[in-house]
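lol so apparently i was supposed to do this last week
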Amino acid sequence: MAEKEFEPKIIGFFCNWCTYASADLAGISRLQYPPNIRVIRVMCSGSISPHHVLRAFQKGADGVLIGGCHIGDCHYLRGNYMTIKRVRFLQDLLKFTGFEPERLHLEWISAAEAPKFAEVVRKFTEKIRKMGPSRLKQAA
Amino acid sequence: MAQEPRFIDTTKCTGCGACTDVCPVELPNEFNLGLDAVKAINRLYSQAIPSTFVIKKYDRAPCTLTCPAGINVQGYVQLIKLGKYKEAVQLIMERLPLPGVLGRICPHPCEEQCRRRELDEAVAICALKRFAADQVNLADLAPPLSEARPERIAIIGSGPAGLACAYHLALRGYRPTIFEALEKPGGMLRVGIPDYRLPKEVLDREIDYILGLGVELKTGAALGRDFSLDDLFDQGFKAVFLGLGCHVGRPLGIPGEEAKGVIQGVEFLRKINLGEPLEVGKKLAVIGGGNVAIDVACTARRLGSQVTIVYRRSREEMPAFHHEIEQALCEGVEIVYLAAPLEVVTDGAGRVTGLKCQKMELGEPDESGRRRPVPIPGAEFELAVDMVVPAIGQSAALGALAEWGVNISRRGTIEVDELTYQTSREGVFAAGDVHTGPWIAIEAVRGGIEAAESIDRYLRGADLAEGREVKREVQGHWREIPKDEKIRPREVMPTLPPEQTCACFDEIALGFNEAQALAEAARCLNCGVCSECMECVRVCEAGAIDHAQKPQTHALKVGAVIVASGFKPYDPSKYTAYHYTAYPNVITSMEFERILAAGGPFGGHLVRPSDHKEPAKIAWLQCVGSRDLHHCDNSYCSSVCCMYAIKEAIIAKEHSHGPLDTAIFFMDMRTPGKEFEKYYWRARDEFGVRFIRSRVHSVDPVAGSDDVAITYLREDGQLITEVFDLVVLSVGLEVDAGLKELAKALQIELGEGNFVKTSCFTPVSASREGIYVCGAFQAPKDIPESVMEASAAAAAAAELLAPARGTLAKTKPEFPERDVSQEPPRIGVFVCHCGINIASVVDVEAVRDYAATLPYVEHVETTLFACSQDTQKLIKERIRELQLNRIVVASCTPRTHEPTFQETIKEAGLNKYLFEMANIRDQGAWVHAHDPEGATKRAKDQVRMAVAKVALQPPLKEFDLPVTKAGLVIGGGVAGMEAALGLAGQGFKTYLVEKKDFLGGHARKLNRTWTGEPVAPYLEDLVKRVESHPLIEVFLNSEVTKVKGFVGNFVSTVDTQGRETEVQHGAVIIATGGHSFKPTEYLYGQNPRVLLSLEMDQALREKNPVVTQAKTAVFIQCVGSREPDRPYCSRVCCTHSVESALALKQLNPDMEVFILYRDMRTYGLRENLYKEAREKGVIFVRYDLENKPRVEALEDGRLKVSVIDHILGIPLNITADVLGLATAIVVKDQEPLAALYKVPLTSDGFFLEAHMKLRPVDFATDGVFIAGLAHYPKPLEEAIAQAKAAASRAALVLSQDAIRAGGVVAEIDPVLCVGCQACVGVCPFGAIEYKEREDVCEVNQALCKGCGTCAANCPSECITLFGFSHRQIYAQVDEALADLEEALEEAAGA
Ligand code: FES
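anyway here it is w/ FE2/S2 (inorganic) cluster bound
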């Protein structure tokens, strides 16, 4: 039987005000990107807890992409400062447990930056595709 | 108020953008300042909300307006440009059923009016029409649909008029009958035009199409010969159209005309065209100069005859078309000008042997304007010919029409109403040559079209004339011809070679090839912008486009007007030295902004316009169009350019892939705003932006490249040249010329620079009562100030209209909510096609069927447009009939449509939060257009996630908190008092707390505003108004010491020298003011001749001899400001010192006055004061922070001030009698108050607002506002504006009866909470409180904004953000990855 090409599963946690909006704008602008991502809309990137991210990896996600407003632009003023801290902490934690920290990626994408959004999703998907399936997937 | 139509029904438009894709018309994108192009139907910018479109439309193009038949010329030319030939023909055929015919023979009056002629030549419109017609098989056109009409109509004559009339009646559902006297239809088109001009196949094809629409044709049936008008009515015809044409040649009236061999031109052509036998002579004389004469001549040439045309006048007067005369000459036809026939000479058998002619000369002009030919006596000659063909005009064979009640004019034509084409006989209409006399076919077509309209109205019993107009002169408002439009000559249509043409009847003109047609169509200038090609209408599934919308005028009854009409950036093309128009890489700062923008012309890639190369060196030239009376009339400073140039330089550096050198060429760096100075320092020290204090000498091109060289004069006198890839002109702000008209209409006065005149004490009031102004129309200013003024203007208007507040408010109906708490989830899923937007990619039916398999889903359905009114109704019905309690809509984005659906389910009795959207359009079909399978899979997953999430969604409560309708203002200075009056003026009880024992604050020490208005009288009046206002309660010698509660419900304790009062209030405004910094340098406090700015004011006021007797005065600027300890500019000091210097000069014009400064920051219109000071001889000497001035006391008590002169490079020593120190403005002890109201301070101790630009008087904490110097140093008028703004924002809270809280907010489960307080610190809104006694934290839902940061930070996950609970997020994660688990399980099982 022919090996089917590996199609990564990626979870995107995007804040409502910037990155989710940029994803909509990418649509309005008809910018194309691979359909491997599943989007969970949250109000602020600061509301994404480490547990949410870990749950995604536990359930076999090959990559997690977090998107928020640029620093200084957070709709709730400072939520994204927390995001930075948590992502750094999570990446350290992942590394510590022997899991590739690059599978978790944080990007600030404003509501106007549709091309950037499409580009980030495209690149991240390609990166994960190259990395291959998450090892936790086999364990699951 | 005039409103332009947008031609889009915004309630129907789904923003899909299909219309833009098909629109053929491109124009410069105004939003990107013409750096790229947009379509005539466009969205101003892609993030625009609502996400709907607008059509730019001027008057119809001149070609369209000129066409007698009213064909949309611009439209079909555009469609041809797109290669949409079928659509083009369809558009033409909305009016003209004979595109191929008229595309060959029309004299095209439209081209006469083509505005391309102003550039080069007219667009070859007629040839394009022919091209399109030749590409299309008429059988492929969609048949018109209309309701069948039973009435019978007779059409007499099958020429262009009759055919057009029949066609348009057929389009309306009639089945008219055409009666044609000849054996074949077509009238003059068939029998008057030779094949080499109009091949018969073309005519046959188009007539066949018309007949195919249900038009009956009876040939060989002539009115008068075979039947009468009455016969027709007797046979049951309800209306008759007369399109008889003019087929009878006019006789010459000379002897011998009856001879054999004399034949009328029209008859000659008819016989040839119908293939009837005709003996054509060897040598012909054709008489006349019109088209018939030429056609006869050329036809005869083709039959081998020698032809001579005899014409009475000269070539210039010949009525035939120029190109046809040329053609005839080329084919060997001889023309004898200035000759009139006298007699046809015959032989004995009565055969023609010659034509005797009279030579003529031209005399006086006749009534036609042409010179009348007069015979030359005795000059006669004879042409030896065997055939004579008169072609001097035709008339109609009217027969007995007059007897049948149809009036005939003196000219022998049928008389009709010029609007309706109705004749004198009821039910009988006429058009074409029979009405006009021999004339062009397109005019006959128009007559036929109009008559058809009249006949239809007549038969329906409608008014024939209503709403119709006689065609007027062509004039209009059209698009300007683009300045850079290139000269492109008209395409030349290939023709048969001349040697071939006269040998046969083949068509001479061969038509354009496709490349030619496309190139020619592209020459169209799109005068009307929108071409009304209707392609957008065709593709708009939502039916949102309405080309019929009209401009509207509204009359609004208002009590106040706020003018916020903004500014216009200075246009540097007026000043040639910058070469803005000549060099593509010299751009304005506005253009640079667009280049940097993600939605800009280059998608946010930093490239220069000329070659799209990434620049490595960029220069900014400051003060373009500002502070400059030589090259523009703007003496003022535009206030914003220094700051935006720095910002642009930093962003450019961030955007650039390679190392980028940025240089800002400036005179004074003006960064007097809050946190601006630090930004400036960071740009210089961290980003390495070069700031070059200089004067730009010239801007020149660099040979062999697109680069630009800048030569500049440095402060030290050196002239330097540097080459840059890109030069940005930092253009200033101007008042648009059009605003002067607006000011006139509003009757408000304009002042300097045409900015609206205001007083410093009423900074947002225009000269006419009830009219307020804010933003850059008042003076050049930046965003925070504009926003403050906007709120201030709102406050001023609200004060004026306080009695009317709420009288026009409408309350929303309440809907009883169904209790679903005991029901298991019953979910309805609606999957939207969005026309074809989703359905063309995602398999919508498959998604629906899949959704039906999901847990708790009770109902699934697809919809064409989920957001349409019908679907909203449907959803409500389904909720009721199926007892659904949760709804998922899979369609577009919740960001635009969630509120609509929430409203809908609310109306159906559901809690509005029991709703979820799956975004399968914006984040589905649209972004995976080439992967339908992947898009469908993703759509299914997102639906599954949405279903899982909504199943866990409880109804959310919203509740109302009462509002104490009173305000508290802290600080009794000008800002505090103005704020208090602002609140009280709107009818709210206000408490004013002042620390000192008097009101007025530091303003008491000010003499005048910078505009020269005395402060004391204003202040006195202000205090009086505060003290006497019945709603204001003043607490002097008081401080706020305790605060409880939150927005709408504060209780603050005011301590008045030990006595405590509790005041209840809904909002608080902090206006605690600032202080002058008392320096230790420059001998301050040690020498009585050294004064602070305000002390100088006092000395001037009190006529203190230290000042009044001084011979030399020196001011030192930036004392304590813009230094590492206090890294901010105190904003007011430059202007203040200039004012004081001017006051000294006024006191004693001989006094020497020096101002030692670092940058003169007389921003805005204050610049004029600086100019005045220089003119009056005040000497300005610049110094650097590294080389501060030194001050020593001299023996005689005077002061020695030394400073390095930058221009001369040598120390300058001044002996001064008095020294003014412009010291910083500082704030003291703001921390306790900040802590009480839970609001933050900047590192400099000023209060920190919610957003520096957009919310300049708000705090993140609701209900707390800021005004005056406690926020940042500012002059009086800005403090007043900010105070009014704060009052406006506070009134927004107080004017509500209740504050709506709840919904998407956080809640802490007190059972699980361990009181760790991890949440308290991360809440930016101060909404979480730690309750010591219970050792738990609690969210104040009135303050919570629902960000969820606390929920994510809680180690025990005991905080829930409603609507986004942990369980819901886990469910979404699990479902997103569920199919993967299944697959794994499957694999494991196998
Ligand atoms: S709202 Fe976007 S990161 Fe906070």
